[in-house]
Amino acid sequence: MKSEIPKVLHPMCGRTLLGHAIFAARGLAPDHIAVVVRHERDRVAAHAAECDPGITIADQDEIKGTGRALWCGLRALPADLSGPVVVTAGDTPLLSSDVLSRLLGRHEGNAVTVLTAVADDPTGYGRIVRDAEGAVAGVVEHKDATPEQREIAEINTSTYVFDADFLREAVGGLDTDNAQGEMYLTDVVAKAYESGAGTGSYVVEDSWLVEGCNDLVQLAALREQLSGRGLEMARVIPICSFLVNSVSTPADSLTPLTDGDAVDVLPPFAGG
Question: Exposure of 113 by Cβ count < 10 A (0-12 exposed, 13-18 middle, 19+ buried)?
């Protein structure tokens, strides 16, 4: 980011990048949330705890890579952890709980389910490799991709759901035999496919929702996107109808809401 502020602590529309990621994860009501820290460890860990006091902080060691980060995160969680494990990046602030919930909905029966998007310019992103039947066969990082693979427009968003038991075994067998000398989490996808454990995907239609942030220009673009979506909401809300505790209520009502009140917003188009 070329900044004294750690990347995930940059503010954007009322929250830091990390704050947005934690908010989206908490929306799934998980049993545990772990934040893996390395660069500027103390500052990032302190902020994560401010965002959500129930968070588990996991320290990544000197071995680089997303695969190693997840290995460290797993070790900080209960040894008997089971069920689905959702993995997100700390620099995709437009990623929402709703998208994560839809990804989870595609996961049943899979060892790995990947959130993907189709990019106009996929340069720098890992590419989704599919077999003849359309199943996800693996993810190839840009630096390791062949010229033919770099023509693929479908990209990895660094957001996954894993089966905990499969993940624990697969991530423990990762190595650093690649162009960047890192433990790639993406190698787990190929392991799932090759073993027949099952791979799946959810392709998000709006690629902005999974756009990452690596510099201040991208941060400004993401801030503009999120602010613009807020302005669109501001235009729609005044022409909606409202129910408070199932009772029709004017939009300009001055009656204060209390804890436990249920508010339904009915959009201004046929069918509600």
Answer: buried
The rounded radius of gyration (Å) of the Cα atoms in the chain is: 20
> Could you give all domains of the chain from N- to C-terminal order, each with its CATH number?
7-226 (3.90.550.10), 240-272 (no CATH)
Contact 113, 103 (CB under 8 A): yes
Determine the Cα angle at 62 with ends 56 and 66, to 5°.
60
Task: Note the pLDDT of residue 80.
Answer: 94
Q: What are 228's two structure tokens?
A: 């613009």
Give residue 267's pLDDT band: very low, low, confident or very high (50, 70, 90).
Answer: confident
Cβ atoms within 10 Å of 230's Cβ, excluding its own: 11
Please report, in angstroms and rounded to a whole number, the separation of the first and last CA atoms in the chain: 43
Give the closest residue to 155 by CA, choosing from 125, 134, 199, 193. 125
pLDDT tens-digit map of 34-83: 999 999 999 999 999 999 999 999 999 999 999 999 999 999 999 999 99
pTM for this structure?
Answer: 0.80
**Facing residues of 136 across strands?**
130
**3-state class of 140 per DSSP?**
strand
